[in-house]
Amino acid sequence: MTTPQPEPTAADRLYALLPEVYRLRDAERGGVLREFVEVLATQLAVLEEDLEQLYDDQFIETCAPWVAPYIGDLIGYRPLHGVADKVRSPRAEVAHTMAYRRRKGTAAVVEQLARDVTGWPARAVEFFERLVTTQYMNHTRLHARATPTMRDQEALSWGTLMNGAFDDLAHTADVRAIAPRPSRRAGRYGIPNVGIFLWRTVAVRLDRTPLTPHAPGDGRRFRIDTLGSDARLFGAPRTEEEITHLAEPEDVPLPLTRRRLAARLDASYGSERDLLLSKGVRNATGAWEFTPVRAADITVCDLSDLPDGSGAWAHEPAAGKVAVDPELGRVFFGTAVPGTTKPVATHHYGLAVPLAARGSARGEAATPLPLPHRKVADGEAQQAVLDGLAGGGTLRITDSDRYEDLRTVRTTTAAAGGSDTVVWVRAEDGVRPTLAVPGGLRLAMAPRTTVVLDGLLVTGGPVVLEEQGDGGNRTVELNDCTLVPGQSRTEAGQPAHPERASLLILDPFATVRLNRCVLGPIVAVEGADITLTDCVVDASAPKAVAFCGRPEPADGGPHTVPDEAAQATGDGAVPGGRLHLRECTVIGGIHADVLDASNSLLVAVRAPGDVREAAVWARRRQEGCLRFSYVPEDSRTGRRYRCRPDPADPPGTRRADRPHFTSLRFGDPAYAQLGTATPDTVRRGADDESEMGATHLLFTPRRESDLLLRLDEYLRFGLEAGFFYAT
């Protein structure tokens, strides 16, 4: 068997072009000429790559990002002002400009324009087509029904289709003017009105997440949510291939309903579709092998609790069948699943704010990961592998399974003169592993070491860094992580222990950085430095404590966490360390040594009998600055700049600045999302006229303004347009 020869390099090809006499002479003189040819080949490769890029720059589909506006200028494309790169690229809009102009004024163009400008799925509705009118008999419109069919449950389903984007029923005229921005007082069904419905919630796919038993040992009743709560499933939108196609329910991310899933089970159930249930068993090598549940064995029904209070579920399936409730996220097996079998689900869930451990693609880390790399999957043991990386390395989790053996992340100090030790625990891009840590995840860190947690969902206990007592610096970094508020959730989705902290930093020399995380309360002793960027800190209620310190131990020893009672935030009377907030939403009170905030929402109130001097309280007010943030009126902080409410405003008008949220229940698709009733002083109150709080990264006001600018160019004369948020 011949060994395949390696492909010749560019330097080899260039060197072979030289006359043989020069090559022989060069070999006698040490290969100086060949070294020159290798340098020349490197520069030729750069030139070749540049020529290829110049060719690609001739086309909008393949050009570099900076070239797109120049190509657009050739066809009269007007760039939008002030749009951040992270929102969208003008590439799609430039590519569709000619198609826009050929079909100018049509609903299809308005819909595609809204999708390209905002980046959200859209549906354009000509409301004048939905009016109750007496039709001309020579030109009847059979689709414009004056009265609905009462047997059409899908058309009458409230909240999904009726009065929404796909409502084809006839309505009486609405004399109110349509508002350009979402408003409760906006008119809809009028003669000049065109509505644009936008879906801000995306459907995120999770592959093979383990089902959570309803109770320990229950092999029949399961929940799809890995936290064991009822959670609604979503349908994955299909991709529209033609600009002339108006969006249909299958083209947008809609919640799955029982009737809709049952009627379209063949199209919705499968490996590359909305839902798939499988059963896994270990093979001879110890790896899991999964067998899908057949669609013929699936029944869609209501699995709500029976009203008799027994805790039983309705509609028990027959033996061999599997009942699914997409509105509650429940699965009921007719035949009990053996303990050696692992039931899993591939499904989609709704997400409006791209934060925390989410399973969607978040891109590879910009910082190079330390070597060595070790991978784990299928729920295999992590602790032993992680202990072997204590001197520096990366543990990479490659699936969305549940891991229950990880308890401690250890680090050891590097040798003298070496770089600081870094240990990563990272989820692969596109997966969301769940770490169940009933006793908490302990960080046993040596001085001058760093621990990075990336893309993990931690439930059952807090992440804890205990006091070491050696005065060494330690750095903890969390990226795209979820430390479940309340540590775990009940079946109804409520926090199981709202008084307990999700993050305890008990070493006064620690530096902690959190980016795009969702977590419960934080306890950090004085001296610790905590920086949060694009995060949500949820104490479950504005009256609770979201950030504070911890009293000194009675025996004068180091800070430790011996039991669950020590994880409570208490009354917040002791100040925490230095707290820096950047585009964050904090639900609950703050008592910090030094407080610094920018573009953030601090939503807190003081309950009667509260021992704190204020809901938001900084002990050292000569340091720190709050800028472009919402801060409660009675707060005691450092100097403020352009914050709301403004102390100069009349007392009766300050309450009008309060933010309104679509939902503050962790696990809801619209969790931490600002509602449309929020005043513009908050929705456009950041330093770049975007939203305050964690939703700042969405740049929602900018997308709205850009859409209004484009509608002036492409909307038909005499019509008025407004847009509505379907989610």
Brief synopsis:
With 727 residues, the protein is an alpha/beta fold.
Into which percentage range does the β-strand content fall?
15-25%
Helix content: 10-25%
Q: Indicate the mean pLDDT.
A: 84
In the predicted model, the low-confidence regions spanning at least 5 consecutive residues are none
Count of individual helical segments: 13
* Number of beta strands: 38
Write down the overall geometry. globular
- Secondary-structure content class: alpha/beta
**Tally of individual domains:** 4
CA-based gyration radius: 30 Å
End-to-end distance: 63 Å
Q: Major sheet, described briefly? A: 18 strands, parallel
Walk me through what this model shows.
This is Phage tail protein. It comes from Streptomyces nymphaeiformis. The chain is an alpha/beta fold. Helices cover 15% and strands 23% of the residues. The protein is built from 13 helices and 38 strands. The strands form five sheets. The protein has an 18-stranded parallel beta sheet that branches. An eight-stranded parallel beta sheet has the order 14-17-20-23-26-29-32-34, with no helix packed on it. A five-stranded mixed beta sheet has the order 4-5-10-9-8. Helix 11 (383-387) links the parallel strand 12 (373-376) and strand 13 (393-397). It starts with 9 loop residues before the first helix and ends with a strand.
Secondary structure: elements and pairs:
Elements: H1 10-16, H2 20-28, H3 32-56, H4 68-74, H5 91-95, H6 97-102, H7 107-118, E1 122-126, H8 153-156, E2 193-198, E3 202-210, E4 212-213, E5 221-223, H9 258-263, H10 265-268, E6 276-282, E7 288-292, E8 298-300, E9 322-325, E10 330-333, E11 342-351, E12 373-376, H11 383-387, E13 393-397, E14 402-403, E15 408-410, E16 421-427, E17 434-436, E18 441-444, E19 449-454, E20 457-459, E21 463-465, E22 474-479, E23 482-483, E24 503-505, E25 510-515, E26 518-519, E27 522-524, E28 529-533, E29 536-538, E30 545-548, E31 576-582, E32 585-587, E33 589-598, E34 601-603, E35 616-618, E36 625-627, E37 639-641, H12 680-683, H13 700-714, E38 720-725
Parallel strand pairs: 2-38, 8-9, 12-13, 13-16, 14-17, 15-18, 16-19, 17-20, 18-21, 19-22, 20-23, 21-24, 22-25, 23-26, 24-27, 25-28, 26-29, 27-30, 28-31, 29-32, 30-33, 31-33, 32-34, 33-35, 33-36, 36-37
Antiparallel strand pairs: 1-2, 3-11, 4-5, 5-10, 6-7, 6-11, 9-10
